[in-house]
Amino acid sequence: MKKLDNYLFLSIIITILTITIISKLSNEDTMVARKSVKKYKTSEICSRFDISRATLFRWESDGLLLGVDRDWRGWRVYNETNLRAIEKIMKNKSAG
């Protein structure tokens, strides 16, 4: 019985160490692979481009502005790709 307890104890320790090592390795890989992506709130976009929230939301609903993410609250969060798309939309609107 004592031998079984020792084997059980050792297998638990090995399992814990393995999980710890895998966890650390996966976190390092994730941290290296992840680029810090700048996110913008709706108010920041509206101020930056001098447009109303209604206009911004309409472009999204009309399909002109795609790929707008949402945060944990469901609020829109814009990225650099969205900014370039907004610049293109504004350029096309002013051109005619």
Characterize the structure shown:
The protein is mostly helical. Helix content is 68%, strand content 4%. It has helices spanning 2-33, 42-49, 53-61, 80-95; strands at residues 69-70, 76-77. A two-stranded antiparallel ribbon has the order 1-2. The termini are far apart. The model has no long low-confidence stretch (mean pLDDT 86).
Low-confidence stretches: none
Strand fraction equals: under 5%
Helix content: 55-70%
In quaternary terms, these chains amount to single chain
Arithmetic mean pLDDT = 86
Mind telling me the C-alpha Rg?
Answer: 25 Å
Strand order of the largest sheet: 1-2
> What's the total count of β strands?
2
Distance between the termini: 86 Å
Count of helical stretches: 4
Give me the secondary-structure category. mainly alpha
Order of helices and strands: HHHEEH
The largest sheet, given as strand count, sense and whether it forms a barrel, is: 2 strands, antiparallel
Q: What is the molecular shape?
A: rod-shaped
SSE layout:
Layout: H1 2-33, H2 42-49, H3 53-61, E1 69-70, E2 76-77, H4 80-95
Antiparallel strand pairs: 1-2
Quick synopsis:
68% of the residues lie in helices and 4% in strands. By secondary structure, it is mostly helical.
Keywords:
96 residues; mainly alpha
